[in-house]
Amino acid sequence: MKEKTALVTGSTSGIGLAISDALAHNGYSVVMTGRRKTLLNDLVQKRKDEGLRVFGVPADLSLAPESDRLFEAGLGILNGRLDVLVNNAGAYVHRTVSEIDAPSFDALMALNLRAPFLLSKLAFPVMKRQSGGTIVNISSVAGLQAWAGTSLYSATKFGLRALTESLLAEGAQYGIKAFAICPGYVHTPMAGPSRVDAREMIQPEDIARIVLAHLSLSGPVVMKDVVVSRLGAEG
Ligand code: NAD
After folding, report:
1. Residue at 159 is within a domain
2. Is 234 inside a domain boundary?
3. If exposure means fewest CB atoms within 10 Å of the residue's CB, which of 44, 201, 215, 233 is most exposed?
4. Structural domain of residue 61, as residue ranges?
């Protein structure tokens, strides 16, 4: 059987770390990436010591050339095969429309939408050559609805769903699947202090289980816009 391979962005923390761990524990060779080199190296070494096949490539995905560099290095490590790309790295900004200026608009778009776009563009021909692959985009409930203060973040996450829909339509004939996960509050550093008890929140491992569930589906079956909410709550 061929070795299964994955690249997970933003895997030094929160949802990305949980997905990366779930994939590694399920037999994938995983390229982990984040901005913080020392943290990344420590996380990778710990997992290697446990016998997992994980590798680290640091990258700042707010800079366009870093997507190319990360992809090239990651694909080299994975011997030219990529079964799963998880576009997870992202940041949250809570500001009204009047408070957002052009540089902050560009910065969040670059990280939350342009990097997933560029990495998907790079993954596409590789997956086409393999006659299959899966691209997972971590959107948000804010990618389905916007509130006061979320215009910019929501625009990036609505955009990520649009990218997912196009990838799915363009990839279907090659066996390439794309799907978006739209979680409410997940217990990670990004969610910060919340009025919701941490134990009541969605856990990063819940999102990882959805990724594994999607990967377990039979060939012609996909999930679309998987919305993940807390029982009895909107987000
Ligand atoms: P987190 O802060 O724990 O992790 C974010 C990850 O992104 C980290 O690994 C960080 O290194 C990486 N990252 C940030 N800026 C980067 C950059 N410039 N270049 C490369 N990597 C960078 O947050 P999280 O909650 O795990 O968020 C992961 C994704 O889930 C994000 O896209 C976020 O929008 C989305 N999301 C989070 C929630 C939530 O409530 N936590 C809800 C819905 C969607």
Report:
1. yes
2. no
3. 233
4. 4-228
Whole-model pTM over 0.70 = yes
Strands ordered across the beta sheet of 54-56 = 54-56, 28-32, 4-8, 84-87, 133-138, 176-183, 226-228
- Model confidence at 225, pLDDT cuts 50, 70, 90, reads very high
Secondary structure (3-state) at 228 = strand
Q: Is 40 in the pocket of ligand 1 (CB under 6 A)?
A: no
Query: How many independent structural domains does the chain possess?
Result: 1
- 86 Cα: distance to centroid of ligand 1 (angstroms): 12
Query: Tell me, what CATH number does 89's domain have?
Result: 3.40.50.720
60 CA closest ligand 1 atom index? 19
Q: What is the pLDDT of residues 47-86, one digit of tens each?
A: 999 999 999 999 999 999 999 999 999 999 999 999 999 9
Q: Is the CB of 153 under 6 A from ligand 1?
A: no
Q: Judge whether 233 lies within some domain.
A: no
Q: What value does the mean pLDDT of the chain take?
A: 96
Catalytically annotated residues: 153
Summarised one tens digit per residue, pLDDT across range 75-112 is 999 999 999 999 999 999 999 999 999 999 999 999 99
Report how far ligand 1's centroid is from the alpha carbon of 4 (Å). Answer: 24
Query: In this structure, is residue 235 part of a structural domain?
Result: no
